[in-house]
């Protein structure tokens, strides 16, 4: 059994018999956070890009429980410079870890660490993750617009669960995300990256109705703090 717990925004805790993984652990400062960073105990931390609402508490969690950060090369260098334990990868590359198999896939977005003083440290390209753990394949799209590469994911992989942003403004909105579902053909799609702030307010139920009308994928709304098991 694989359990996905939504901790708000784009943060997911994924538990399988292979290990515990957190993706994009933005908890401090996240108005929808369903956990505190100090309560997180994981084997690995996957980070899609350097923006604060994704890198979040990754470095602190990594240092506290010696969890391995897996991220694009430039972002790993940044995390390493802050004392985190981190493994570099890049788009198209995959690797088998004790906690599961990870492949970095393209995301069309930006990636930088922006300091409190407005200073910008570029952290390479953003990514999405394919994660196979406990025999289930999960696709976390990160922050991205609709990209034709998603067609390839649908053609090459049998995705059990796709976690897709629907917030619009910074990422795909609901209309483009439905097209993404048509291309990825996941068994289940769960929307994320909406309603954290007014700027990305969306109705996930309406999104699921569009998915149901136009695709054969199941669409599930998981609220912050709730879990989905497969
Ligand atoms: Ni972003
Ligand atoms: Mn974001």
Task: Give me the secondary-structure topology.
Blueprint: E1 3-8, E2 11-16, E3 19-23, E4 44-46, H1 52-55, H2 58-65, E5 68-72, H3 73-81, E6 86-89, E7 94-97, E8 100-106, E9 112-114, E10 120-122, E11 127-133, E12 136-140, H4 149-156, E13 161-165, H5 174-184, E14 188-192, H6 204-214, E15 218-219, E16 227-229
The structure holds nickel (II) ion (NI) and manganese (II) ion (MN).
Q: Would you write up a description of this structure?
A:
By secondary structure, the protein is α/β, with parallel strands linked by helices. It has a single domain, classed as 4-Layer Sandwich (Metallo-beta-lactamase, Chain A), CATH 3.60.15. The protein contains 6 helices and 16 strands. The strands form 3 sheets. A 7-stranded mixed β-sheet has the order 6-5-4-3-2-1-16, with helices on one face. Helix 4 packs parallel to helix 5 and helix 5 crosses helix 6. It starts with a strand and ends with a strand. Nickel (II) ion (NI) binds next to loops.
Q: Can I get a quick summary?
A:
The chain is an alpha/beta fold.
Mean pLDDT: 98
Task: Give me the number of helical elements.
Answer: 6
CATH H level: which superfamily?
A: Ribonuclease Z/Hydroxyacylglutathione hydrolase-like
- The name of the CATH topology is Metallo-beta-lactamase, Chain A
Q: What is the CA–CA distance across the termini? A: 6 Å
- Write the element-wise H/E pattern from the N-terminal end onward: EEEEHHEHEEEEEEEHEHEHEE
Contiguous uncertain segments of 5+ residues: none
CATH class: Alpha Beta
β-strand percent reads 25-35%
How many domain regions? 1
Bound chemical compounds:
nickel (II) ion, manganese (II) ion
Secondary structural class: alpha/beta
Question: Order of strands side by side in the largest beta sheet?
Answer: 6-5-4-3-2-1-16
Extended strand count: 16
The second-level CATH architecture is 4-Layer Sandwich
The coarse silhouette is globular
Overall helicity: 10-25%
Largest sheet: 7 strands, mixed
Radius of gyration equals 16 Å
């Amino acid at each position: 059994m694989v359990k996905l717990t939504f901790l708000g925004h784009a943060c997911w805790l994924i538990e399988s018999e292979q290990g515990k993984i957190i993706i994009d652990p933005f908890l401090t400062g996240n108005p929808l956070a369903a956990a505190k960073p100090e309560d997180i105990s994981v084997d690995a931390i996957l980070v899609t890009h350097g923006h604060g609402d994704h890198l979040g508490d990754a470095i602190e969690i990594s240092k506290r429980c010696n969890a391995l950060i897996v991220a694009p090369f430039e972002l790993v260098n940044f995390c390493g410079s802050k004392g985190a334990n981190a493994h570099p990868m890049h788009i198209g590359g995959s690797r088998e870890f004790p906690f599961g198999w990870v492949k970095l896939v393209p995301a069309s977005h930006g990636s930088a660490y922006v300091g409190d003083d407005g200073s910008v440290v570029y952290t390479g390209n953003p990514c999405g993750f394919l994660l196979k753990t406990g025999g289930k394949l999960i696709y976390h799209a990160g922050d991205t617009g609709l990209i034709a590469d998603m067609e390839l994911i649908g053609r090459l992989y049998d995705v059990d669960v796709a976690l897709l942003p629907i917030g619009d403004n910074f990422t795909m909105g609901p209309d483009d995300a439905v097209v993404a579902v048509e291309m990825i053909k996941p068994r289940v799609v769960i929307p994320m990256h909406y309603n954290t702030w007014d700027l990305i307010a969306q109705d996930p139920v309406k999104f699921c109705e569009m998915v149901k009308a136009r695709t054969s994928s199941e669409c599930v709304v998981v609220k912050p703090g709730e879990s989905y098991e497969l």
